[in-house]
Amino acid sequence: MDRPKSRPMVSRVIPVELFDLVVFGATGDLAQRKILPALLRRFVAGQVPEGSRLIGAARSEHSVAEYRAFAEAALAEHAAGVGTAEQRKAFIETLDYVTVDATGAQGWPELATKLVAGRVRAFYFSVAPRLFGALAERLHKYGMASGDARIVVEKPFGRDLATAEALNRDLAQHFAERQIYRIDHYLGKETVQNLLALRFANLMFEPIWNAAHIDHVQITVAETVGLEGRVAFYDDAGALRDMVQNHMLQLLALVAMEPPGSFNATAVRDEKVKVLRALREMGTGKTVTGQYRAGAIGGKAVPGYDEELGKASNTETFVAIKAHVDNWRWKGVPFYLRTGKRLPQRVTEIMVQFRCVPHSIFAGKGATMQPNRLVIGIQPEENISLSLMSKVPGLDREGIRLRQVPLDISMPDAFVGQHRRIAYERLLLDLIEGDQTLFVRRDEVEAQWHWIDAIRAGWRAEGLAPKPYTSGSWGPSAAIALAERDGVSWHE
Fold it and tell me: What is the pLDDT of residue 177?
């Protein structure tokens, strides 16, 4: 196959194979906010070979010209300032469109004729999960599910283990596991990938990355928003299904996994699955659930969950969990997970608390010690901070004073000239190149749901109802007590 030609309007081209990317749900919110902007950015960077196309497919009746106008408006809102006018115009001209009925016959023969033989073909299922099986079946029926075809499916991957297994079976009827890319956009974030580099590319960390030297780990995913137009979905899901089952368990697996033999899809995902299967089933008193009430965020009054929903509900908008990974490396080390809506700030971070030094030689001089702490910020800022003990300058006539001093690495500052990229840029390139390392495998999904289902079963058995918390706070007071019973304070 000929190498793609470079364009004179871009300064740097990385060879990528010619591809046709079909996006089902091409007029939806995800396509407008993430998929189209990500592809535009890669087009401007020279990573969309000339002749490659994005083919939109949806129920809406649009001509190609109308869809291009629709996409241009979406990019004006969600990718303003990306590329020159000439580049944006050239990108829009790569777009095509077909009106398709996901559960019927309309549009499928036309879509099949648009695909070019001999190039990478990928199908992005940016639709409700209930349509995944129908789309897969029709791609097979109309001859588009070739051996090198790939499909991308977004979460939720089911709503419990039974539905996840059924969904996986439906997809497996038409596509092999090597063709199925389950996307979790957290895995495309630079700092999440940097967690692997931090652990496995630096000799100083891996020898102490275990129960002998780590006291506990905290993972926080905090949001300031409420329902934000997701009323029907969120009330049926709740925080445990929406955030813990996927994003937070993926972060936990990356923190806790053993070193893989190499950085490839099989080796990395094998190690993650081992962690997920080693998670201890939750007992009474190891979880806290909450639901926000009216309060204030950033000085602005906001309504409670029941007011936004328009009715009373037992859906949790906050979850705190004390988890354990039952293996040699992590024996006795608690993993505290916390996520919620209408919290004081938007932040996603991993905090690794090391143990205290076994003996302080400075105690006789009046100095107090604090354990080292590693904080990996994922959003809104990508940074890494390691706190070390340092002597406060002075003559020490009244004793030695020690103080924690942070060593901060701000990723934008450390890599000057590197533009911050949205996670979908990396993941879409990996899709085209056939690299599944940062995508979720079938057994990962099912291991995650097995653990989550056990938690929900415990809630039902106990008749657990979410505890109210004021918007703008860090959740119910019981979440603070969950950690403080072990002498631990949440990192804030």
Answer: 96
